Amino acid sequence: MYISSETLLSRSDITQLIGERRVGLFIVDEAHIFTIWGKACRSDYWYLGTYLKWLRKSMAFPVAIFTATAIYGGIEDMYAQTRDSLNFIDPISYFGYVRRENLEMKD
């Protein structure tokens, strides 16, 4: 199943949609959006963690989150904010650094 956060949170029948199938992996892409938009204009993103916690009471599945633009550390620590908003406790984290020569950062 491929579903947006807004659709997932607005459907009260998600367990009926899943039915007898097993959720193999729940993926959140562009996870930095939770901290950028989740508190302001897309507040439904901020509640995904609460919803996942509720859903995982009735079924077990791993959750993976991905982003290529998160800030790690400091006052704008998107990693910690996203981890906390999704109710992750002691997650396994992988960090990488990809420098792309064809992209230039400017102030």
TrEMBL record:
Gene3D superfamilies: P-loop containing nucleotide triphosphate hydrolases. SUPFAM superfamilies: P-loop containing nucleoside triphosphate hydrolases (SSF52540). It comes from the Bacteria. InterPro entries: P-loop_NTPase (IPR027417). This is Helicase ATP-binding domain-containing protein. The lineage of its organism: Bacteria, Bacillati, Bacillota, Clostridia, Eubacteriales.
